[in-house]
Amino acid sequence: MPKQDNIPTFDELIIPTIKALKLLGGSGTVPEINEKVGQLIEAKDLILQDDELQKFKKRITWTRTYLNKYNLIDNSSHGVWSLVNTGIDIQSIDTSDIFKTVRKLLRSNKQAKKELKALSKDTIEVLNSEGNDDWKELLLKTILNISPDAFERLTQRLLRENGFTQVEVTGKAGDGGIDGKGIVKLNDFLSFHVIFQCKRYQHSITPNQIRDFRGAMQGRTDKGIFITTSTFTRAAVKEATRDGAPPIELIDGDLLCEKLKNSQLGVETHMIEQVDIKKEWFDKL
Fold this sequence. Notes:
The protein is α/β, with parallel strands linked by helices. 42% of the residues lie in helices and 14% in strands. The chain contains eleven helices and eight strands. The protein has a five-stranded mixed sheet, sandwiched between helices. It is globular, with a radius of gyration of 23 Å. The model is unreliable at 115-131 (pLDDT under 50).
């Protein structure tokens, strides 16, 4: 695609965009993706003026559109973009095929577009009647069966969907249980750093684990989030809110399921219409 500047064309940005998402843990907001792509293509010297920055943003927007139409990436209602398959082999990507396929698609009818964007993931349907939490049990079992890395990416994605930015998974041996960090921006003037720990446990979290996590927080931040697929003992909940100690937000398995449902991450809800015939109404005619 011909251009009159040094900024890569939108099809040349396809590979860098996928690389950026992989480096971001499989998902990211538009500013995070743009920044990471800019680093990958070493665009610091290319995008110095506002007009060139706008060209770059416009082209990478088209890149995301093409990748979305080709079913390689997806976006949520909260503006978070994610790889459909985090294990995608970049070497196998044919950018010319993406360009030709999507260009043809854009010229075709709406039905063809819907077919190309059909979901490739398996969907588990759970009929959820009032007060029935069977879906949560099934969801937690599903989460327990994914890899530790996948669970960390899920946590990362969940935090992004709920307003966190610059979310990174940093967990490594000897890091005191710190699995990642992020920034919460309350308004244009105030933001704070948060670190998180995520545990796929079946047994309850104890106060000792809360204390260990708080110890790892020392000198890094005063805000922490502990996420688990299990539950917290009463003593652990008390320890998390102990007077004089930095508070720790707790998300147990039940709340985790609710947040995943509300964010529509791996969970779809369907409204079921119920029709009731009110016989007494007719009796009054």
